[in-house]
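Extended Data, panel c. Modelled sequence:
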Amino acid sequence: MVHRSKQRLLFLFSWLLIAFNANAQDTARFDPDTTVSFVINMDVVNIRSHRLTEQDFIDAVLADTGFYKAFRDMKRYSFIAENHVYTYDKKNKVEGEIYRKVRRTMTGNKAKVEYLVKQDKGKLYKKNGKYDLYTLEMFDYIFNNAYKSDFAAGEPLPSTDGKNGSYKDKLKTLIFQPGRKITGIPFLSKKTEIFGKDMRQYYLYEFARGTYLDSIPVYRFKVIRKPSTAEGDVMINELTTIFDVRDFKILGRYVDMKYHNMLFDFDVKMNIELVPFRDKLLPAKISYQGNWDVPLHKEEKASFLITQREYK
């Protein structure tokens, strides 16, 4: 039972590691890159001239709860969401496609969800009606569940009840609080703690300035694996964070993760961007590309792009 539990944990965890770089036919469709919406100046920033240090950025990354709050707070609002999801076969040809255009309307604390477009193509479901890939199950868990849920102050996002709750909590930590140690994952627990004393030696830090949404001044803080570092020594190749210069709030996050051993093989990239709305930050774009292979389970290759707009 212990062996099976570990396999299940690796299987669940590997999905969200919210990935990919399979090859051009996968990655060309949605390229998760934080800099797409951010115009970055060419000059490298001397952060000390801004009275900042590397540790200021590290502390802010580790302390940040803004992404978690953004996904929780979006349930207060009405908005339009568009979800594009693709799955791929072993030759990287599109195997399945999901497209949803959703209007979510809030009346008081009650949510109403209207599907303006709902299209499924190709191989997506098992005979029992469940999704064929765990990636699709997790997509539904994170987004569709949140769209349909009413708002309750202080609630976690989303619910982690059930037998997979503890695994999903680990995935949520990786999305919302990267850089922290995630315990209970064989071979990988310490590798997620990229700012810890054992992992810092493997990384370089880079800084730049730029603008977001044509007007917001931002810092870009990149944590990149050193060229001299062997791939097996790290799991996270890059963690890029975009900070609002004015209040140091985090507006964007890009994660590139890759690992291979005899038990599992994954290659994942994920980008999340927030947009200011009144006094809140709310999700604007989430893109994911990933492929992973775990023993006793079907190899999974998938990508998705989520955009949310017209918050009211």
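The chain has one domain: 2-309. This feature is highlighted in the accompanying rendering.
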